[in-house]
Design a protein that fits this description.
Layout: E1 4-8, H1 12-23, E2 27-32, H2 48-51, E3 53-56, E4 59-63, H3 69-73, E5 77-81, H4 87-91, E6 95-98, E7 115-119, E8 131-133, E9 144-145, E10 168-170, E11 175-179, E12 186-187, E13 192-196, E14 199-202, E15 207-212, E16 218-219, E17 224-229, H5 243-264
Parallel strand pairs: 1-2, 1-6, 2-5, 4-5, 6-7, 7-8
Antiparallel strand pairs: 3-4, 8-9, 10-17, 11-13, 11-16, 12-15, 13-14, 15-17
């Protein structure tokens, strides 16, 4: 029987992890909030919350409840609304992976499962979890820390084609978002890409809209709501798990396999 891993979160980085674990022949259950706010929606299993089912790179995630969990797992990824991770005690998985990417620990404890992995800043190995995976772009991306922590959050996005903070669009006010230019749209600098309660939000650089929060979402001031990739020729990447997500996923899989072998010794 396949071993089960629970992943907290189903945004784009978590989706890379979920896909990697699924392809490595684990049963994977993803836990999300009732209203996820993923930016890279086309590569986020969290979209199944709104659509009941969502496919990324040929892998299907299906929204379910604990009553039809087993049947759903036989067909692919099972996605449940469970922000407090209450299902963990019922399932007793081999591993729990916190991939919420909140830059802080949201109720993940080292005793939740035989193997607990924290992804990104906010976790300390041997205290909150058994291993931490680096999420900062650069030489250490995907590195596993069995002692210590990942790099702290710099609040500066990774460099893509010479752009960092300009790539990311944050909400100037709180309110309901209306999408004008959605994912895969090519935009010019200063072109209006969305509004929030009528306030226009413009692109800060020319490029390809790679991420955009769902239309009619209520957003808070300062919240990340969109991102622009200056590489307009890479439109197909809007539908593919990113290099960053795959690298982090490789670290998660390696850590689980290593820690599992130590448990079985």
């Amino acid at each position: 029987m396949k071993e089960t891993i629970i992943v907290r979160g189903a945004g784009d980085l978590a989706t890379g992890i979920i896909a990697k674990l699924h392809n490595a022949n684990f049963n994977v259950i993803a836990l999300e909030t009732s209203q996820p706010t993923s930016i890279r929606r086309y590569v986020s299993f969290s979209e199944a919350i709104y659509n009941n089912q969502f496919e990324v790179e040929g892998i299907k995630a299906t929204l379910c409840t604990s009553s039809n969990l087993e049947k759903t797992l036989s067909q692919g990824i099972a996605l449940l609304i469970d922000p407090k991770a209450e299902l963990i005690d019922q399932i007793k998985p081999l591993a729990v992976v916190d991939a919420i990417i909140a830059k802080r620990n949201i109720v993940t404890r080292i005793n939740m499962a035989p193997i607990v992995i924290g992804v990104g800043p906010g976790f300390e190995s041997t205290v909150d979890c058994h291993a931490v995976i680096e999420t900062k772009r650069g030489h250490d991306l995907g590195r596993i820390y069995y002692q210590g922590c990942a790099y702290p959050d710099t609040k500066i996005p990774g460099n893509v084609a010479g752009y960092t903070i300009e790539r990311v669009i944050k909400a100037p006010i709180s309110g309901e978002l209306k999408v004008i230019k959605d994912i895969t749209s090519i935009v010019d600098k200063d072109e209006i890409i969305l509004t929030i309660d009528g306030v226009e939000v413009k692109a800060q650089i020319p490029g390809l809209i790679r991420g955009m929060i769902r239309d009619k979402t209520f957003v808070k001031k300062g919240m990340k709501i969109a991102d622009i990739d200056p590489r307009v020729e890479e439109k197909d990447n809007c539908y593919k798990i990113s290099d960053k997500a795959r690298c982090i996923a490789g670290g998660v899989l390696e850590a689980i396999l290593k820690l599992r072998s130590e448990i079985n010794e």
